[in-house]
Amino acid sequence: MKFSNTQILYHWLSFALILIMAGTGLAYSYDLLGGGAMRVHQITGQVLIVVLGLRIATRLGRRTPDAADGHARWERALSKIVQLALYAVMIGYVASGYISASAETDSALIAPVSLAFARSDLGEQILEIHFMLKWVLLGLFGLHVAGALKHLIVDRDDTMARMTFHKSKS
Predict the structure, then answer these.
(1) pTM for the whole thing?
(2) Mean pLDDT for the chain?
(3) How far is Cα 13 from Cα 150, in angstroms, rounded to an integer?
């Protein structure tokens, strides 16, 4: 069983948006594009919030394919843990980023949270959480990619085909 085309679209759209956010976050950190990098970062983050909401709603409304036969129990367990952690960290990442961006008086946010809250001690802690979560997200992303490559190169099974628009063998 494959993921639905909608699930596949949301998966790869999330991936693309996160890459854009990583690039614009780095560009902002090193002042490569001036204030434009943060504006693109914030707009992309808001789009990611919508995509994540749609992705989670779709996932809750449609059963996901079971792991292919032949995968060890530890592989299935690790896959589930990484998937759940990716969702949790992505939610925390965009939420903390949104609150942190609300501290800027000229943000590109549609509906920023209270400026007083965003600039409070708690708001500063949330900004630190946002910075920390990028490393957690990177680590989880690395595990996810490593698992995908293992299935593609080592196992040579049909696991990767379930998350692409190409027809799977099964």
Answers:
(1) 0.86
(2) 90
(3) 22
